[in-house]
Design brief:
The chain is an all-alpha fold. It has one domain. Helix content is about 75%, strand content about 0%. The chain has helices spanning about 5-20, 25-50, 55-75, 80-100. The longest helix is centred in the middle third of the chain and has 24 residues, at about 25-50.
């Protein structure tokens, strides 16, 4: 898959995060964008290496990375657990919409 598509997916995921975290975006943006970049990078790595990564491995890796993203978001005292979960779901949905082929990865 082209790097441009992954860049578009990253942009879509960041936009989704920003829409969910609007009131706190200035405070959380640096940490959240870094974790979104890690999530997209991991998805790309897994996509590039599907032949050597088992289904269980990539599911575990993606679940771990989504958990890290959620932990970073909820780590800000202004953001509740529910808001963090909704933000992660919105980010993942944006990735799936941007790159439908990653449905099994996230």
């Amino acid at each position: 898959m082209s790097n441009a598509r992954w860049s578009d997916a990253l942009d879509a995921a960041v936009a989704a995060a920003k829409s969910q975290l609007t009131q706190n975006w200035t405070t959380v943006s640096v940490g959240v964008v870094g974790q979104i970049q890690a999530l997209v990078s991991l998805a790309k790595y897994i996509d590039d290496n599907r032949a050597v990564i088992s289904d269980d491995e990539y599911k575990m890796l993606m679940e771990h990375q989504k958990g890290c993203l959620q932990s970073v978001i909820v780590g800000y005292k202004e953001i509740s657990y529910t808001v963090a979960r909704n933000a992660v779901a919105s980010i993942v949905n944006a990735l799936i919409k941007a790159i439908p082929g990653i449905l099994g990865l996230v």
